[in-house]
Structure formats: C-alpha cells, structure tokens
Fold these 2 entries.
Entry 1:
Amino acid sequence: MNKKILLLSATVLLVINSCNNSPVAPPEDQPGRRDYTWTVDTVNYPNSINRLWGSSPSDLWAVGPAGNLSKTIWHYDGEKWSTDGIFRLISATSIFGFSKYNVFIGTHGGQIWHFDENGWKEITALSKDGNSNIGFENIWGESLNNFYVFGAYPDDRGYFNNSVIAHYNSSNNWTMLSTDGLKGTVEHLYRNLYYDKIYIQAMDIGGGEYYDSTIIYEYYNGKYNKIYSSVWAKGLQSDISLINGEVYFILGNKIAKRVNNQFQTFLEVDNPNFYQRIWGRNSKDIFFSMTDGLVHYNGTDMKYLFRLERPSNYILQAALFENEVFFLVIDYPNNLNLIYHGKIEKGG
C-alpha cells in the first residue's frame, strides 16, 4: 500500500455513493436456522478483547487495547486462537477488513495499521485540530476504496466527546471530515442501502456532571440531524446495527427501521434481560444480546441459543457467516475473553 498520506480539509462532506434517493426494495428474507453446535474458546489476554472481525470462519481477528504489547492482536485459523508475539507500540481499539489480506486496525493514538501478505504495518497517524490523541472506536466501509474510521479525542474535561470521522478513498488519501453538529465518541457509522442515508451513533460521556447518553444522528445533504437520544443505562440504551444492507435502530426495548423520516417499530422485545445489542444476516435471522445469554429471532418467535454461565458475563461482539457464528463474551470478574463458536451442518 502506498505510504503517501494526504490529509484534506475538514469541510469535506461524507461520501454517499448513489444519487438515487428513491428507496430500493429489500430482498425477501428467509428464517435463520437454530441448530447450532457450540464450543467455547478462551483468548488469554490480560485486558478485555473489544473488537472481532473475520473474512471467513477460518480467518478471524480479535484485538484489544494495550496491556501486553506483544498480545494485542489475535488470529483464529479455523482450529485455534494465537498471537504472533511481536511487540508493537499499539493500543488496538477497532478492526475491520475487506478480504483476508486487506484488514485495518484503528488505535488509541490515531494510528491506522494495515495487514497484507507481508503482515502488519502502520500506514498513517491522523490528527484533528492539532490533537493526535484520537481513540478510533470503530471502522466501517463498503469497499477497500471507500471506508471510514471514527471515534473521538478529549474535550476540555478530558472526556472523549470531540467527534472524529476520517474517510479513506481510492487515491490513497485520508480526509478528516467536518463533525460540526456531532458530539461524543462515534461508535457506529453505517449507510442504509435502501434509503441511501448515513446513520451515526455516538456516546456523549457525562463524566459525573450528567448521565452518559447515546445520540443517533442522520447525515443527509451535508448536515447531521439528531433523531434520537437516550441515557446509557441497561434497558434504556440505544444503538444501531447494519443487517443485510439496512440500518436497524435499537431504541430501548424496541427495534425499529427508519422510513420516510419516521421510526417504524419492527419488533418489541419483552425480555427484561435484553441488553440493546443485535446482529443479524436478515430480518428473520437476528441475534440478541441478553444479560443471561444469546437469543435468536427467526421472523416468528425468539428462542435462547445458549445461556451464559455467570450473570456478570457480557456479549460484546459478533462475526456471522453462512453456517458459523462467533460471539465475543467478556467475563469481567475472572478477566477472561471467551469466544462462543456456533456451527450448523450444511444442508441440514
């Protein structure tokens, strides 16, 4: 990858790849299967693993912030999890890729790392408003030539509330985008394929002066419009998830879609253990994070796929493939990172 990095003006608008504002009809969805066989692996890292991504069930990556700098990056080859043991000055906070040899890591410190056939290397270090203390919370994009890294840098009180979004394009240029109108750590950014709008979820850290809050924005025609906010507390949290090209909104116990600038309830979750996290392949194949396990929705009903051993465990991340699924579970009291691996037999 070319090492030349160009940081452009902060007034650039987010890229939307279509000029057609008419909605595109989503495909007909099929109910997801539930006959998984489950195994559990432990990733032996002294800190919590916080991000998971993979190109296939035999090529997964997991990363965590600085703890042991020779074990911040883990890989699964279809049989076992391992780390290469190379010492790197990196506090990995996000990971996303487009193929086996095109994977990117964002760090706490503004660095971006890239993995190819030759291994991992730092390709750039970004800053905004003269501040390089950026925590890149997440990465998302539709292609190798069009993706975003995002997070925040500290405000005057030291909390990461100054929003940051950087865009990478096909010319090997990094563009630091304007975030006027945003506040908080940008945790998710997705484009809704069917309505051609970008949605952003940010966490505004109160720091004891007021409640931590989640804010959801819609980006359209060069403006960030706040469309929802909630207190960051169990049962009240909000979030967004991209499922089969469509953005789903988790608004407390309701799952909604955004149609004609209005929220339309897709599903209400009556289980009080719902922890406002969902992942899915389509509208009839969705996984729900619960404080006591993992629940699946198949378009008709909801059913537990597994129960967590301890009430303090927490399902943090997921990687979904056609016949296999992986869920990152954090066991905080025992300082364990657990990977729940579910597999169904093909054609069964």
Note: The domain at 26-343 is CATH 2.130.10.10 (Methylamine Dehydrogenase; Chain H).
Entry 2:
Amino acid sequence: MVMAANSGGYLFHYWAGLYGGCAHIYAPGGQRGPFAHLPYGIDNGAFAAFDAVREWDEAAFRKLLDWTEAAAIAPLWVAAPDVVTDAKATLDRWDGWAAEIRERGLPAALVVQDGMTPADVRACEPDAVFVGGSTEWKWLWMYRFCDSHPRVHVGRVNGYRPLLRCYDAGVESCDGTGWFRGDQVQVEGLRRFLHEQSEDRVPSPTPLFAGSDDAGQ
C-alpha cells in the first residue's frame, strides 16, 4: 500500500477504486475521514518537527490518539513517538508509549532509527515496524527488517524507483508527502506503480540503480 499524505483530492480516491493499493497516513492536525476504501496509519509527527527544527507537540499527538480511538475504522498501526536520529532515546520511549497506545485498543509500531537491528525489534515486540532513520541507512536495512518482521512500513518514499525497492523487499506499506505537490513526473510515477501492481507486473529493481528518482528518498 502507498500511503499518500496531503492527498484529499479526488484523484487519489479515484485511483484507490481503480487500482487498489492506496492508503492514507494522518499526522497530528491532519486527520480526516477515515474512509472505508482507504486503510490508514497514524504518524506521530516527530520527523516533521525535526525537519522544521521545532519542538514535537505531544498534546497534538494525544489529540490525534483520541480521534483515532473514537474512529469507526481502526488504523493499521500507530507510530509510537520516536526521537529522530537517536536510537537509544527511541527505545527508551517505547515501553511507555506502546503501553498507552495498546491500552486504547490500537496497534503500536516501533519507528526504527540508525543503529537499530532486528534484535532490537524482537525485544520490543511491536505490532509493526516503521523504518525511519537516514535515507542511506533506511534503504540498506529495510530488507533486513522485512526478513525479520511480517509487517514493515517505510517512511519518506516519494518516487517510482523507491516504490519498486519497497515492493521488491515485500513491505506492507510506505508513505510519502511529495506525491501531490505539482510534479507531474512524480505523480505519474505513482499512477504507473499502482497500475502495474494491480496487474501483478511490477518489475524488480534489482540491481539497484541511482538516479534523480532515487534522490526522492
């Protein structure tokens, strides 16, 4: 599944019906729906705060948890709050946040950071694994997490070739915020991938190749 963020327009909903494989991801303050035809995941907003060099808003995340708990449709997972670039701090946060998320009847996803291994994941016993971390580390370790856990999500995937990598690895879902920002080549890459996947003819990206599309994370 491709979870498109900031995609409230008709086109993505149309593709969901035409091709399947579409889903939403909601971050604090961005919740809408949810929609019966679009599975969804819950982001914690930590990376957006890190990227914007601002403090993470815990109150906004708890408000999103309240909305999710009351929603008629359950999410695929909730990304437990992590500390971007800090594996130890993320692991230190896990037990408390995972317990709170699960007490609300929601599945908890561990957001893995550079330096984490499948052994760390096994010790945490998450319902899903959310592969974050740096771009280079993410692509290197994605396959290893897929080999060791049945449910893996990959963040910051915004190009056709990165979609192929995720498909090849066997991830359950990925997300991207850049699909509907006006780049027609990029949005056509998403349409092409969804179409090919619907016909079970997505090619393998092996051997991996570099290019401008890969730079889209």
Note: Strands lie at 2-4, 22-26, 40-42, 78-79, 108-112, 128-131, 152-154, 173-176.
